[in-house]
Hints:
Layout: E1 8-9, H1 10-17, H2 21-29, E2 36-37, E3 43-45, H3 47-61, H4 66-73, H5 80-115, H6 120-130, H7 139-151, H8 154-162, H9 173-188, H10 194-211, H11 215-229, H12 232-237, H13 241-257
Helix pairs in contact: 3-4, 3-5, 5-6, 7-11, 9-10, 10-13
Amino acid sequence: MAQTEPYLRSAEAARRFGVSGKALRVYERYGLVRAERTAAGWRVYGPEQIRRLHQVIALKSFGFSLRRIADLLSGDLADLAAFLELHEQLLRQEATRVAEALRLLSAARAKLAHQGGLSSDELMDLTKETAMTDPRTNDVSAAYQAIAAKHFSPADQATLDANGYGGMHQPDADWGTLHEEATRLMTIGDPHSPQAIDLARRWMGKVFEATGGDPALTRKMKMVARETHQQPAFAAASPSANALMDFVAQAYGAAIAAGVMSNPAEG
């Protein structure tokens, strides 16, 4: 085994990355990294394995499951430059949130020192704004932003922004109502019913409002939604979200067949 750079044994690699030897074996079991072997059978990690471990551990820190990490690293993020760009984007977003939270806390401390107290409204606002720096509450935003950055071009994002679409990580009462209705209708189980067709008309109308009816952007939005729903933070909140999308898609097909809607996404 030619060695142009030092190879690390399992214990050394684990120590350098701050993980356990067991974690390295789990990553190997999921196919995320393949250690090489010495003549004596010891696992060793060279430059390619080190690069891969960096990607795996960073993605895991963003809340991705090991299965999802395997999918990501077999696709667009297999390229190191693309991965590092995504990693940098996510860290910059987190740094911006932390900087704003620190500014708000500093201002609150100054006001407390000057006035001797803070109002209930001020305390509630402060809690709401600074809690966003907790990584657990950022899982949803980080998961969506990572996937959106992979699929949406700057022009795509500009279109969505111009049409008032804030992203899946932003609260939206209209989408909440549609999801509740879709869940109820899916339980009944008839995507061809008049109620399901009407739901599909309103659901897809909201999608086309965000994408401007652009077929390519509509397809990208669907891909982003499906991938995002698989992330731990989203799956915990809505474990059947993709099944819900499948139901709406069937109802949408019924709406098209009935002449209730056209299909710009097929354009």
